[in-house]
Amino acid sequence: MVSYQNNTNAATATSSASHAGSTKYLASSDQKYFTIDKATLQITWSNPQGIDYGTALSSTQVNAEANVLGSFAYDPLAGMLLLTCTQTLKATFTPTDTANYNCVNAQVTLVVNPYSFTGCVQPIDMGGVFNKVKLGSTVQVKFSLDGYKVLCR
């Protein structure tokens, strides 16, 4: 006779076997313990495309997925504005079924592009000449940052 403890969760399980004996064999039994480990989660999260400085993080960047039910906590959070450079986005996944799955961490790299100064626009001439203005005059300075128009006074 063989029996086992039917355990569907990660834990220590028991398996036992016994033989009542016969005219040819003595009675015998044994019991073994073994461990059923928590399953390994699979997190899918690709490095997102770069964003321009001033663009808030969104679900386009913080969009990791897991193969079981649970929830993600991100660092930095969606809605945050990041400094210009290569940033590391981190995620911690907590499964709903913590009896059978461990929490998992993941990270990706995001490039935050700086504004690209494309030059001043009229009345300032960017043609390599000195611009002259009468002392005490007010001049509107307009310049372009990657398509964004900025007016400074």
Question: How are the secondary structure elements laid out?
Answer:
Layout (H helix, E strand, L loop, with lengths): L1 E3 L6 E9 L8 E9 L6 E2 L6 E2 L12 E2 L3 E6 L9 E11 L8 E10 L3 E5 L19 E5 L2 E5 L1
Parallel strand pairs: 5-9
Antiparallel strand pairs: 1-2, 2-3, 4-6, 7-8, 8-9, 10-11, 11-12
Describe what you observe in this structure.
The chain has 153 residues and is mainly beta. The chain folds into 3 domains: 2-36, no CATH class; 43-113, Immunoglobulin-like, CATH 2.60.40; 117-152, no CATH class. Helices cover 0% and strands 45% of the residues. The chain has strands spanning 2-4, 11-19, 28-36, 43-44, 51-52, 65-66, 70-75, 85-95, 104-113, 117-121, 141-145, 148-152. It has a 4-stranded mixed β-sheet with strand order 5-9-8-7, with no helix packed on it. The chain is rod-shaped and about 120 Å long. It starts with a strand and ends with a strand.
